Structures are given as structure tokens and as C-alpha cells.
């Protein structure tokens, strides 16, 4: 079962790549390049934990090699009951220009939740960057919500068109 609650005949575990040293390097470089080719100039990149975290951190790290710097943040699934009680942790500040990161887009629900939280906290969302688009309507849902979407790979490029 997928995070969306849907059932699928295959599972894409991006974490095996997004948390691997070489995967982090590659995703960071490709993600940063994709963001810049889109003309987005974010202050920060991040999204809903856990899938978005390594993607955002990889892009932030890559910006150290090819400035300007882009820092990272994470959106908690729920505010902590103790401490500052924030939903957003990291380098996010109200007024920040933001790219929402995602490991896999299925329905778009995780990205839309991150967008909602960022906007409530005063951020401006430039678009969504995803590693994989499962091509199951999530990208269309995000675009229908007025969001530009950039993906590094579409599922049929990984597993073929007959899935």
C-alpha cells in the first residue's frame, strides 16, 4: 500500500537512492539544475517529512558547490506538543521563496499539504520538485492547484510502460 492509501503492483522506495551517498550527490546536482532551469530562485527547499527531507538536503548541499545558496527545511506531519510547537523546522522564515520537494508523486497529497503549511506560515511557493512521478494523476492535481511541477524521472522510464 502506498502513502496515498492506494494499492499498486510495484513500490518505488526512493529512500534507497535519496539516502545513499551517491544518490544524494546526483539528486542534489540534478535537482538544483532543474530548479534553476525553471527560473526558480528559492531561498529554501523542503517538504513533508520523511520523503522530502533527503531531497531537500541534497539540493541545499549542491548549492554550496554552485551558489547562490539554497537552504532546507522540513514540514512535520503534525506540530510537536512540546517545545516551540512548529510544523516547519529548519531554515524557513516567513516571506521565503520556496520550492516544495518530494521523493515520489502519486496523488500529490503530500506536496499539497506542504504547500498549504508553507503558505499558512507566510512562504511563497515557486513550484514542486519531485524525484519520481508515478504518473497516476498527482502531477495533474498539483498543476490544477496552480503549481508548476518539475520531475527528474517519470515511472515508465524506470519500470517500463506496462506497469
Summarize the structure.
By secondary structure, the chain is an alpha/beta fold.
Give your account of this protein's structure.
With 163 residues, the protein is an alpha/beta fold. It has one domain (15-154): Rossmann fold (3-Layer(aba) Sandwich). It contains 6 helices and 6 strands; from the N terminus they run ααβαβββαβαβα. It has helices spanning 15-18, 21-37, 52-65, 109-120, 138-144, 155-159; strands spanning 44-48, 71-75, 88-90, 97-105, 124-133, 149-154. The chain has a 6-stranded mixed β-sheet, with helices on both faces. The longest helix is centred in the first third of the chain and has 17 residues, at 21-37. It is globular, with a radius of gyration of 15 Å. The model has no long low-confidence stretch (mean pLDDT 92).
Q: What's the CATH C level?
A: Alpha Beta
Task: Give the tally of β-strands.
Answer: 6
**Element string (H = helix, E = strand):** HHEHEEEHEHEH
Largest sheet: 6 strands, mixed
**What is the total domain count?**
1
Helix/sheet category: alpha/beta
Strand content: 15-25%
How many H/I helices?
Answer: 6
Give the strand order, joined by hyphens, for the main sheet. Answer: 3-2-1-4-5-6
- What is the CATH architecture descriptor? 3-Layer(aba) Sandwich
State the end-to-end CA separation.
Answer: 16 Å
Q: What percent of residues adopt helix (DSSP H or I)?
A: 25-40%
The stretches of 5 or more residues where confidence is low (pLDDT under 50) are none
Indicate the CATH topology: Rossmann fold
What overall geometry do the principal axes of the alpha carbons give?
A: globular
Mean pLDDT comes to 92
Spatial extent as radius of gyration: 15 Å
